[in-house]
Amino acid sequence: MFKKITLLGVLAMLCLFLRGQGQAVYTLSGRVVDAQQQAVANVTIKIAHQNLGIADKEGQFTVRTHLPKGVLSFSAMGYQTQTLTFEGNKAKLLVVLQEETAALQEVEINAGYYTVKEKLLTGNIATVKANDIERQPVSNPLAALQGRVAGMVISQTSGVAGSLFKVQLRGQSALDLSLSQNDPLFVIDGVPFEAGLAATNQHNSAANNPTSISSGGLSPLNTINPADIEQISILKDADATAIYGSRGANGVVLIITKRGKRGELVVNLDAATGWSRVGRTMPMMNTQQYVAMRREAFKNDKLSMTTLNAPDIMLWDTTRYTDFKKLLIGNTAQQQRVQLSLSGGNEQTRFLMSGNYNRATSVYSSNFANQVNGFRLSLNHNSKDQRLQLQVVMGLGQDQNSLPRYDLTRYINTIPNLNLYTNDGKLRWEDENVQYRTISDLINPLSLLEESHHSANTNLNASFNLGYQLIEGLKLTLSSGYNLFSTAERFKKPSSSIDSYATVLPSAGLANSKSGSWLVEPQLSFEKSLQKHRFTAMLGSTLQHRQKQSNRTTGTNYGSDLLLDAIAAAGTITAANDELRYRYGAMFGRVNYVYDQKYVLNFSGRRDGSSRFGPAKRWANFGAVGAAWIISGMPWLKEQFPRLSFAKLRASYGTTGNDQIGDYMYLNLWGNSSVYNGLASLYPISLYNADYSWEINKKAELGLDLGFFKDRLQVAAAYYNNRSNNQLINYVLPSQTGFFQVIKNFPGLVENKGLELVLSGNVSAKAFKWSGSFNISFPKNKLLAFPELENSSYRTTYNIGQPLGMVRGLNYQGVDANTGLYTFSDTNGDGLLSTADYQVLGHTNPKYFGGFQQHFSYKGFSLNVFFHFVKHRGLNYFKCLHLS
């Protein structure tokens, strides 16, 4: 029996060998180039839907087939598919690919839970791609978005490296920002980035606002390397954001990192260096001008200068001069950046690994810097029949920031003849027996360079996506992810930074925090086409859990600087810790219908549940509807406007909620008080109110998208009107209750409306290429209703009919020629100047803002120009500075 099986096996193998010998193999080779005869890499080569191979980075290819003749197809991203007929062996084939011109109609837009062709998009989604991000020498992704997205205002709270960014998408909708935040939702590779826009540092650093150290800080998004980003999508209107429910009430920012591409192993190394200095600054007086100004002031006030009221003039050297602007912030900041990546793969499996190093110093001193290191891994796999897709993405980033504890900018208006050093080179704290601290709390500003603040932020972001095609048109997907963000910081205030005449001793502090969040989202999607009808539907759910732990310790009254690293060596220790838990659940769905590629209807909805509300108010429903009419698909329009290649009219309306109010706010909260009878005591700090619920945002939008000359020129216009109601505020209580306030919903109504215009174009002519874009936004913000405003604690902050960013104050009338004093309007005519005389002087909201970009390339040379502009009224910065 064994011999028979062996003999049959040998005969079968022999038959296969003879069959293989009898079947001819044909070899086809050549090169793929573009219209300018430049090589095109990663071109997929197919015959009868069978993949034969991929062209290398030089455009060269060699493929083999058993077919004696047929048609080869060549396809690559950004190019039109080209076909070529062959017969027998062929060598030195030259294939020329033409760039796609109708990009507006066919490009895929990432909407988070789904992708859609821009032609069929009913919502408003702006996209910034890798090319635009990589051209900017920035270390934070938000810096790359400044001026590139219509309707989005991005501002950095400080100029130091690593500082926080503020983002506002289509205006402020919340009345009380201490309760309800206006921050958009950030999602990285499908996983919410819970750190968002919140400052990571618990102790003060120079990254905090110099005029208000309680605001500003260090940005958690520094841990995301801009060079790793493939594209950023910004979801604006209700149609685009409703599927995210309450988390997307203020917009959604989707960050998609780069993936591996099929082809040979590609190694990219990018290194860059740069320099920067403080730009526009005010000219400051020298000592001669300062002394003349002081003498004139005493003369105008009819006062005599003495050693008590003018020691800087009567006792100090009036020939001494220090340019404090140059001394404190006049250094040159340097930046170095290195990026290394490896990518490759085949039709089934693709990978990408990358590492980065970025270091930027400050204008204070090269000893203070922000250094970021990161590593990212992406792995994509699909089965041969394309029914199974697997994607794993993991990113690890660390941001180490070293800064002084306070921004030195606040001291550039220091007295210019201040004596800084003693004869032995130490910091001086007096001159001619006059202590600096007796003159309006004057300090030696160089002492701030002796203090230090060091912070280390670590961000781990991992996502796992598994998709399986159950049957044709029906797909099951499981998306999950985990985000871990941790911070470790310390500060030191050594004796060298302390006024030698003060009774203060050295101090130091430590702080740590860790926030972990996991997410699971199963989804079921369906797609079906019947002649001119196309149906798409999706149903899914979300489970999310976040837990944050933090602690903060401060030690004072150290006996020696050598002990500042040991918190236990402090004479006095204060400590605090906190733990927060947040749970979120939702069901969401979407139904999309397209008829004849001309008419589109989109319905999306979500039922949200949040642990930030009381048991009876935790669930709410949100939804939106969007519609689009592809006018360019109408035959009569093509005849009347032959140069018009695309035209779409779209509209959307929907509601979203907002749960960015902090955790446990509806409960009775207690705080620590002083020790009583040797025991720690507690006191109530807020009242229980489980009845407040979600803020409601209603959004409406009308848009028009146009393309001319085969979409080489594109124009987009959008008008939006958003209204936010059921506001969460701190409602003031009578003092008899024992509490100052309680959180409750209030029927305050805030309106944000505006017009956004975007123009873009591109031209290619042989070796020359040009592309450009321009966007401008005209926002308007107004408080429409606030019952009993005059009797509330917000009466000095808001006025009905005025923007939320209004500025109130005394109305300046000029200088009285007789007295030399400033004069102001006595609004109520009581003969006194007080807050009752305040008038609305204007507002700090932008009147318009936008960006302008031009990119030129010729053969191997390129030039990129970008301008970002904002028109708004700002506050007098130097008026806000103070030395106390």
Description:
The chain is mainly β. It folds into two domains: 80 residues, Sandwich (Immunoglobulin-like), CATH 2.60.40.1120; 654 residues, TonB-dependent receptor, beta-barrel domain (Maltoporin, Chain A), CATH 2.40.170.20. 8% of the residues lie in helices and 50% in strands. The protein is built from ten helices and 47 strands. The protein has a 19-stranded antiparallel β-sheet. It is globular, with a radius of gyration of 33 Å. The N and C termini lie far apart (102 Å).
Per-chain topology:
Layout: H1 2-22, E1 26-33, E2 44-47, E3 50-54, E4 60-65, E5 69-75, E6 82-87, E7 90-96, H2 103-106, E8 108-110, E9 115-117, E10 125-129, H3 130-134, H4 141-145, E11 152-156, E12 165-169, E13 185-188, E14 191-192, E15 208-209, E16 212-216, E17 229-235, H5 238-241, E18 252-257, E19 263-276, H6 287-300, H7 311-314, H8 324-329, E20 333-345, E21 349-361, E22 369-382, E23 388-403, E24 430-431, E25 434-435, E26 452-471, E27 474-493, E28 507-530, E29 533-556, E30 572-595, E31 599-610, E32 619-630, H9 635-640, E33 644-658, E34 669-676, E35 679-686, E36 695-708, E37 713-725, E38 727-732, E39 741-746, E40 749-765, E41 768-785, E42 806-809, E43 812-815, E44 822-824, E45 839-843, E46 848-858, E47 861-871, H10 877-880
Parallel strand pairs: 1-7, 13-18
Antiparallel strand pairs: 1-4, 2-3, 2-5, 5-6, 8-9, 10-17, 11-12, 13-14, 15-16, 17-18, 19-20, 20-21, 21-22, 22-23, 23-26, 24-25, 26-27, 27-28, 28-29, 29-30, 30-31, 31-32, 32-33, 33-36, 34-35, 36-37, 37-40, 38-39, 40-41, 41-46, 42-45, 43-44, 46-47
